[in-house]
Design a protein that fits this description.
The protein is an alpha+beta fold. The chain has 2 domains: 3-168, dinb family like domain (Four Helix Bundle (Hemerythrin (Met), subunit A)); 183-274, Nonspecific Lipid-transfer Protein, Chain A. It contains 10 helices and 6 strands, in the order E-H-H-H-H-H-H-H-E-E-E-E-H-H-E-H. The chain has helices at 14-25, 44-63, 78-96, 101-120, 142-164, 172-183, 186-189, 240-247, 253-256, 266-270; strands at residues 3-4, 200-206, 211-218, 221-226, 234-239, 261-264. Strands 1-4-3-2-5-6 form a 6-stranded mixed sheet. Helix 2 (44-63) runs parallel beside helix 4 (101-120). It is globular, with a radius of gyration of 19 Å. The two termini are 34 Å apart.
Length: 280
Amino acid sequence: MLRPVEPILIAHMLPELHGELMQLLRPLSRMGWLWPTPVPDWDVHDVVAHMLDTDLRRVSSQRDGYRPAPIGPPPASYAELVALLNRLNEQWVVAARRLSPAILLDMLDLIAPQAHALLAALDPMAPAAIGVAWAGEGESANWFDVAREYTEKWHHQQHIREAVGAPLLVERRWLYPALDTFMRGLPHTYRDLTAPDGTDLTVAIAGEAGGEWTLGRRDGAWRLFWGASPAPAARAELDDDTAWRLFTKGLEPEHAAPYLTVAGDEQLGRQLLHLLAIMA
């Protein structure tokens, strides 16, 4: 039976996820901090610096109300917004290369609990300070912004774990909330693909962290549901490892395509390859 998806309440997981990160980073050798990650041109030190930056910026702006002077006109398009974020991220990462790993860890220990407390105190249903742009939302509820933050912290930690050869956090308790959040981008991914009302696409993610979601055309718009449609126009299946990598740009669509199985409408099913749940 199909059920409309509900808010993902996950702020309580952020401190534990941070604890896993610190346990991973503290024993690293100097060489470990220099290992390249799946993020192009970024080593472990760079990814950690980026994670620190996101907490610093959020606490500064959202808790303290601090707004730095604009560095140019506001972005006029999604592409301009992505380009601006990439510039800001790169500027910070380059500057942070002057900092030792010990300093980065001390700063994370200081700011991360403040960021967690800030997010935990928010009314989940109130408007968020930042919309989830990759889902096509100019304004989002706090729960979605917090869930997005979880996915960012989670998938960057996977980059570090892959770089240093540590086990990934892919047990269901870690990965399923990320996948459920990524799926909230499906209606936006299919925005330009029209179909008659009543058309359903079921997305099945196989594996321990998997599940089933259905994107249904209702009243001229795409709506997301939990569960499998009894009579979908298409059923698209991916394994959970391929899915999270694809949705976070760790796999290009053409490289993920061999792992995607579509029964029914091929065009409808293969549009799933273009779901991207990061700002890119």
